[in-house]
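Chapter summary example.
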Amino acid sequence: MNTYRSEPYALNLGGRLIPLDRPLVMGILNVTAESFYEASQVHTAEAIARRARAIVSEGGAIIDIGACSTKPGLAPVSEEEELRRLEWALPIIRASVPDAILSVDTFRASVAERCVKEHGVHIVNDISGGKMDEHMYDTVARLGVPYILTHHGSVVWQEMMYDLAERINRLHLMGMNDIIVDPGFGFGKTIEENYRLMAHLEELHLLECPLLVGVSRKSMIYNLLDCTPDEALNGTTALHTVALTKGAHILRVHDVKTAVEAITIVKKIHNS
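The structure predicted for these 272 residues follows.
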């Protein structure tokens, strides 16, 4: 499906080598009360278990657990509160779907380390790209887990590419092998910049890392279409389809089933 690299990427996830010849779906599980899309929030043990099982049963390969919302204009919860939420939720998730690949959505190195060491989390998803905690790169390099490097800021193309390339190189020099690039749709970008980024997404393959796209129900959709996050699924699927045709390897989503269906259809077209 990916026409931008002769050999598919693969990720080492807890000793399992997972090929990315077919795009993967990362399902969002928020144990927060602050996330912009309220339907994604789960607040009871039963709801957490139900959401985890639904992600897997609908075809999701990865569960991304977040406990500290990065909603624009909202102050993040304390490190203690983030850890409390995660250490409550992770055992429930692990018991419900013991074989699932788990990712923790955090910009704090100490939180990432605790989740990996004590709860067996496989991936660290850092929306700050290492800019909010100077210890993050050292931590993920020492832990040896795949790291999602997110670009945060406006899209001045050459500057963005240089910044990502410099950070990738720094991580490689520290011994990191599995780096996933997230271009950061919605993070410090205008609507115009978000769509320019999507229009040129294939150019990010020059970085020689798997690409993660996270546009699910974001403001770049609902502001453009003059709707609410609840009404933004159709726009989300449209953008997922575009991203897949441009070689996206992972889709981070609220709605797993529709994303899996988009992958199936685009793959069928590609192979026809």
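To summarize the output: The CA atoms of residues 31 and 42 lie 5 Å apart.
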